[in-house]
Design goal:
alpha+beta
Length: 148
């Protein structure tokens, strides 16, 4: 009886697991970094359009995650977002390169989002992140994806 239950559990898991085709649709070669593969993390709706934010885990140091991100649809941006998986009130750091060259010191802009500023960021009113920058919803999706 136990072998049959194990078999049924395995079949049920296979039925709900995403297919390889679905995983391939959600990943692609980076638009800005050769030899790097990124996966879709968040689809941002913008009026009648959308932009897909892709990314990959760059570094994991204890509870901290550095995630490379990029988009090239409606928006154009790339950079790193750093967050803490275990301290909910920790600052979020962003290194933005916008339309410039990824890694270029001349094109780099650093933004720090303190816990007290998160409501403003979520409402789209955090001035340092106006325009074509990662949204609060992107941060939540990246946090969920990389803080397992």
């Amino acid at each position: 009886m136990s072998a049959r239950l194990s078999f049924l559990a395995l079949m049920a898991a296979a039925a709900v697991a995403p297919s390889a085709g679905a995983a391939e649709k959600n990943s692609r070669a980076s638009e800005y970094r050769s030899g790097v593969t990124v996966e879709r993390i968040y689809r941002q709706k913008i009026e009648y359009f959308f932009t897909d934010w892709f990314g990959r885990l760059e570094k994991s140091d204890g509870p901290w995650r550095d995630v490379y991100f990029e988009t090239s649809d409606k928006f154009v941006n790339k950079g790193l977002i750093s967050f803490n998986c275990s301290a909910a009130k920790a600052d979020v750091g962003l290194v933005l390169y916008s339309t410039g060259t990824y890694g270029s010191e001349a094109d780099r802009r650093i933004v720090r989002v303190r816990f007290a500023d998160r409501k403003t960021w979520a409402a789209g009113r955090f001035e340092p992140l106006y325009g074509e920058t990662p949204s609060y919803e992107f941060y939540l999706a990246a946090h969920k994806r990389f803080c397992r």
